[in-house]
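Before surveying the methods themselves, we first show a specimen of the format, giving the amino acid sequence and backbone structure tokens:

:::
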Amino acid sequence: MRKPTKAVIPVAGLGTRFLPATKAMPKEMLPLVDKPVIQYVVEEAVRAGFEDILFVTGRDKYALENHFDQSSELESRLEAKGDLARRDLVREASNLGNIHYVRQGGAKGLGHAVHAAHSFTSDEPFAVLLGDDVTEETSDLLSVMAGVHARTGSNVVALVEVPREEIHKYGCINPSGTEVDGVIPIADFVEKPKTEEAPSNYAVIGRYILNPGIHSILANQAPGAGGEIQLTDALATAARTGAAGGVVGVVFRGERYDAGDKLEFLKATVLLASKRDDLGPDLLAWLKDFIATR
């Protein structure tokens, strides 16, 4: 199998769950400690060898584009002040891979956003990363998924095990076999099932390695939930029929932060800050005092 080297990151969403903060700022630019959410996602892709990255954008996403562009004036001012450490931090974002942009042309669903990248991905397999999911910086999830793709030739989705009583919040899989070395063959997908009807407690999270054949399915995919073109529906077709190579899942058991939920976003900020040498000790000490007085 051809090794995937391109990554697609859909960023056209409106971020309504974080209003009013996202009224004038893209949700992807919300900071986790001192770095925007989207930079964590791009860094993950680059670490795994995906150096050509396409953002599928919408209106009013200019701040995101500016963040990954060079800022000569800011760099010069920091150099003049002798603040080379912060200058280097600014440069990091503009030196991450080869970043490209395409407009989605309306919020028509994740499947529509992925299909908007078909000219970029062409006849190659590619990764899709959703900005709501941030993994720990030592995670090798994407590399593992790429290895599974090379062995199986299948589309690969990332999975996490969730408590049975929470599976109704997620899209989950119907396995066609048992887990072997962290890999599960998939027969079908079920979106937000009733707890008693869920075929498993494996939930799909926002990391995918997709074959180019998924574009043919998406091009003919009827609108699903919310009247939008859903990637899950296209993957369900591939799983049921074996089209585009079928689908397998890779179970992720590392740390993951859900940056799309306000409470989880706050937890992620605390967890990431607590691991830093410059913030962790003082933050943890303050938290202990804070909790003790409540």
User: Anything to note?
Assistant: The CA atoms of residues 70 and 94 lie 5 Å apart. The chain has a mean pLDDT of 91.
